[in-house]
């Protein structure tokens, strides 16, 4: 058996390739390549296997000599753990290969485009060659798999004898008709496009998307011209910037050693207001203040131009010197070169100012439908008070404000809270307010102040968290909050929020305080045509009829 180690401190949601890529970028030339890497799902560690003890010991020493990596070596207590994980990985790879083979056989008669362009198109929009009806069918199958997985994990955690009827028979969960996308909005729909600045396969400076693999040493950044979901205006701006960069004396940023200057271009746009917001990210540590000023002036001259029906609303220059893909930039490191730090969008006839660093749904017409689905759920339950949790810039609350008496939002990010307050004023809303706090710190007092009484179906809590869901203490705070009997949980990655849903739905016991919820219905919203991703809206109601015998 080849020597192996357990590496602790790995990001919980990272995958094998992401871990390997991060280690390569952080350790640079000193990196020792393992013969095998296995990252178990949802675990903060990974297994590494080396060709011999010497390679293993060198890697261990390298980790110990770099405490800034915040990684440490753990013990492999179970000798069979690595083999089991490897067997699971090989099985998954075989399944993926079979699916690719089936896809190729099914679509072998399609016109073949150039390899690199096809690779970029498939990487950014892997289903663009599949009929739209088949895309929806595939996504509905994935949603059904999520529900099945929810059932299995629920029973594993609590036992079959304590499982409610809707878990034992998931047909009791209503799977609503999918919210599909109209034909004219299925391509080139993204309202936010982020382009990497690096070198293409010809070793020329390029502004576009990553293609290939760092592991196979064939990675490059290729122009976005064939990307099926990127809008023409964003491609035009990327090509314009690429022409400028190819004559610049400054090199693209090297994510492994920190050299170079140019990092990324971001283009945000609205087809309804015809506004553009452009952000450029650089590493200004490698240039002088005089050079920084000169670059700023050149960028203003470059981008203050005519974009046809679109108008430039803002131009920003951001700084980040972090290795890897991390582009975190503070307000102090962001300079407004022209105009504003936001652009305006219209969603369900509401005006929304979206800041350069704020989250927004990437498909505006489908966002209308997403929020309308939430409104319809509230109408059906005669909701009069709406609790908008993890509210961001307050968009959901604003869009439902015409239908609901009182909107109260909770958001921990101070900048987002300021944006929400400005958006309330922009729409002359008197029934919306936001609290800047962690949800778990204030939700019980907030619900009490709203005076929602059990059985009157007045209060709806809406949770639209980041991709990975929320922490357990947030879910516990929502679950144990009196007055919250209805929850809408919006997720852009349903498999990743299964734990959140289970925690909400487990029967009341000594460990699980308060009656659990039941999953009543689920709606798929196709926010990402031409890809395998989708948004899901889970509607849950408090289940007062089920009390666990574990109490």
Automatic annotation (TrEMBL):
<dbReference type="GO" id="GO:0032259">
    <property type="term" value="P:methylation"/>
</dbReference>
<feature type="active site" description="Nucleophile">
    <location>
        <position position="492"/>
    </location>
</feature>
<dbReference type="InterPro" id="IPR045850">
    <property type="entry name" value="TRM2_met"/>
</dbReference>
<feature type="binding site">
    <location>
        <position position="464"/>
    </location>
    <ligand>
        <name>S-adenosyl-L-methionine</name>
    </ligand>
</feature>
<keyword id="KW-0949">S-adenosyl-L-methionine</keyword>
<protein>
    <recommendedName>
        <fullName>RNA methyltransferase</fullName>
    </recommendedName>
</protein>
<dbReference type="GO" id="GO:0003723">
    <property type="term" value="F:RNA binding"/>
</dbReference>
<keyword id="KW-0808">Transferase</keyword>
<feature type="binding site">
    <location>
        <position position="361"/>
    </location>
    <ligand>
        <name>S-adenosyl-L-methionine</name>
    </ligand>
</feature>
<dbReference type="Pfam" id="PF05958">
    <property type="entry name" value="tRNA_U5-meth_tr"/>
</dbReference>
<dbReference type="GO" id="GO:0008173">
    <property type="term" value="F:RNA methyltransferase activity"/>
</dbReference>
<comment type="similarity">
    <text>Belongs to the class I-like SAM-binding methyltransferase superfamily. RNA M5U methyltransferase family.</text>
</comment>
<feature type="binding site">
    <location>
        <position position="411"/>
    </location>
    <ligand>
        <name>S-adenosyl-L-methionine</name>
    </ligand>
</feature>
<dbReference type="InterPro" id="IPR010280">
    <property type="entry name" value="U5_MeTrfase_fam"/>
</dbReference>
<keyword id="KW-0489">Methyltransferase</keyword>
<dbReference type="InterPro" id="IPR030391">
    <property type="entry name" value="MeTrfase_TrmA_CS"/>
</dbReference>
<dbReference type="GO" id="GO:0006396">
    <property type="term" value="P:RNA processing"/>
</dbReference>
């Amino acid at each position: 058996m080849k020597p192996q180690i357990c590496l602790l401190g790995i990001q919980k949601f990272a995958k094998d390739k992401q871990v390997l890529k991060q280690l390569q970028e952080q350790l640079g030339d000193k990196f020792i390549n393992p013969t095998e890497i296995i990252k178990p799902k949802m675990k903060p560690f990974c297994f590494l296997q080396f060709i011999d003890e010497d390679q293993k010991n060198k890697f261990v020493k390298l980790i110990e000599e770099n405490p800034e990596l915040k990684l440490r070596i753990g013990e492999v207590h179970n000798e069979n753990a690595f083999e089991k994980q490897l067997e699971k990985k090989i099985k998954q790879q075989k399944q993926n290969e079979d699916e690719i083979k089936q896809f190729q056989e099914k679509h072998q008669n399609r016109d073949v485009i150039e390899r690199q362009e096809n690779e970029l198109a498939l990487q950014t929009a892997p289903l663009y060659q599949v009929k739209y009806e088949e895309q929806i069918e595939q996504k509905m199958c994935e949603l059904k798999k999520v529900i099945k997985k929810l059932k299995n994990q629920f029973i594993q955690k609590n036992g079959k004898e304590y499982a409610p009827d809707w878990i034992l028979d998931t047909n009791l969960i209503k799977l609503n008709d999918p919210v599909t996308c109209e034909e004219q909005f299925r391509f080139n729909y993204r309202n936010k496009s982020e382009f990497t600045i690096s070198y293409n396969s010809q070793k020329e400076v390029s502004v576009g998307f990553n293609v290939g693999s760092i592991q196979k040493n064939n990675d490059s950044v290729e122009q976005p011209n064939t990307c099926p979901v990127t809008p023409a205006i964003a491609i035009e701006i990327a090509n314009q910037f690429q022409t400028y960069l190819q004559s610049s004396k400054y090199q693209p940023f090297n994510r492994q050693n920190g050299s170079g200057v140019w990092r990324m271009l971001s283009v945000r746009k609205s087809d309804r207001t015809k506004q553009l917001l452009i952000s450029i990210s650089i590493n200004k540590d490698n240039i002088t203040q005089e050079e920084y000023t000169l670059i700023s002036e050149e960028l203003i001259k470059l981008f203050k131009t005519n974009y046809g029906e679109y108008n430039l609303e803002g131009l920003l220059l951001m700084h980040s010197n972090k290795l890897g893909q991390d582009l975190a930039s503070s307000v102090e490191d962001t300079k407004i070169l022209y105009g504003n730090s936001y652009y305006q969008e219209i969603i369900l006839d509401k005006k929304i100012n979206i800041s350069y660093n704020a989250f927004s749904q990437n498909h505006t017409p489908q966002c209308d439908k997403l929020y309308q689905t939430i409104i319809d759920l509230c109408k059906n339950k005669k909701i009069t008070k709406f609790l908008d949790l993890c509210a961001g810039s307050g968009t959901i609350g604003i869009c439902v404000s015409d239908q609901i008496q009182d909107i109260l939002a909770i958001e921990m990010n101070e900048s987002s809270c300021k944006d929400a307050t400005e958006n309330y004023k922009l729409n002359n809303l008197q029934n919306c307010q936001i609290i800047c706090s962690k949800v778990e710190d204030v939700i019980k007092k907030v619900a009490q102040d709203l005076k929602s009484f059990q059985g009157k179906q007045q209060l709806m809590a809406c949770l639209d968290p980041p991709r990975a869901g929320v922490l357990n203490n947030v879910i516990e705070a929502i679950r144990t909050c009196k007055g919250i009997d209805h929850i809408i949980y919006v997720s852009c990655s349903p498999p990743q929020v299964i734990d959140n849903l289970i925690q909400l739905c487990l029967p009341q016991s000594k460990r699980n305080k308060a009656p659990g919820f039941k999953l009543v219905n689920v709606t798929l919203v196709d926010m990402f045509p031409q890809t395998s991703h989708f948004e899901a809206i889970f509607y849950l109601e408090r289940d007062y009829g089920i009390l666990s015998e574990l109490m």
